[in-house]
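*** Protein under study ***
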Amino acid sequence: MHRPVLLVIAHGSRDPRHAATVHALVRRARSLRPGLRVETAFLEFNLPSVPGALRALEAEGVRDVVALPLLLTRAFHAKADIPAALADAPARLRIHRADVLGPSPLLLRALERRLHEAGVRPADRSSTGVVLASAGSTDPEAIAVIADIAREWRHTGWCAVRPAFASASLPRTEDAVRELRDLGCARVAVAPYVLAPGFLPDRIARGAAGADVLADVLGPAPEVARVLLERYDGARLPLRPALGA
């Protein structure tokens, strides 16, 4: 029996760094699971589109696809845009839905990897306040998830951890940086909880001007690639049977 193809669905961006980072992450996932076919599609701005990728797979004779949203929270894109795009899948394809990436302990490890790469040492932990800077959302569920992650992360030894948002929600990154200073944290680090560069990550970077450390986006960190594979393995049952099944 052939393994389903993993179709990673990213948002897309006019910024070429976004697609380049998504493709690097997909290559990392392939390297961790030799023999698994991993493809990429985008909701907008980049090609292939989700319907286009699905049609191409169906034309090749593929019958089972695991559709994985390359998203950190279940907000509008996960709840509306991606289901709408998958609704146009060719009738012969069985679509298995995978969950969004977050929350996951592996993503916390990826955040810590990026902070370490930016110069935060284990010995700095108790004196360092961290801003968990996400893209932001109007979805209360997504905002609550970010707040929960910040609370969980605080208990691993940091001076303090505060959530921040680049859009749609408050506080902004610069406000969280000032709050951590006021709390007395000797150093302040900003950890972008975003997957790829683009407009909102750039806004996070500008808001981090008053911090001591700005970590990189999660990107193709090996922990993120492992989450992709975990979500693939736990994919849901088919949405509909294939024709003739």
Notes: Residues 5-102+222-233 form a domain with the Rossmann fold fold (CATH 3.40.50.1400).
